[in-house]
Amino acid sequence: MTDHAALSSVAREAVAKATGIIRSMTSFSVAAKGDRDMVTDVDLAVEDAVREFLARETPEIGVLGEERGHVGDKDLWWALDPVDGTANFARGIPLCGVSLGLVDGLKSTVAAISLPFLGITYTAVEGQGAYVGEERLEASKATKLSDAIVSIGDFAVGEGAEVKNRVRMALLAELGGRVQRIRFLGSAAIDLAWVAHGKLEASVILANKPWDTMAGVLLVREAGGMVVDIDGGDHTVRSAATIAAGAGLRDEIVAAIARVTG
Asked: Has the keyword Transmembrane been applied to this entry (predicted)?
């Protein structure tokens, strides 16, 4: 039987170690790793350090990291983004985070997200609520789009980006005139953590990279929010998209997406 309390402690310690590295590396190099995508030596240093720590503390659990790929168990594994929001980080924009989620089967059961430059750490364990520090999180109870601040995930890059981004542009047109504000924060971890925290009413990420999303998905659910796939079905690690919202806006957000994708 998985000891979630013990693994939550491991996750918190792992993101604390990552935060220390990020804050200590005041100079770094930036390299291209694809079309309009980048990696810094901080990303690599953090991932390597966290992988080493997790291998020592939880050798029976696999790890999927953004920069180094998947090793170990494929049913129970850590999903790690060492610096989510690398483009922000590389330019000195403090909206970035370390995201670590434990994936058991198709869903996450433990989560820790640290925002190093904001001094905030979010945690969650399945069935036990989501927290920022000692404060229990509660997703927004808004029921009208006109009251909603909605974050949109980054535009697609690489092969097929032009087609994918037509949907994003249509979504902006659909939501832009109806919600209170649209925001592009540049970090899926922050998008999801802030839906859980009630700072955002919804987040629409038209992708589902596990290292970006799995920790934040659990935060939202444990805060009373909803996370669904692009078709409105339940979100899992295999979903095509990650749409999170307070429960009162789920149907309106899903309907808006359906109008631009259907």
From this structure: no
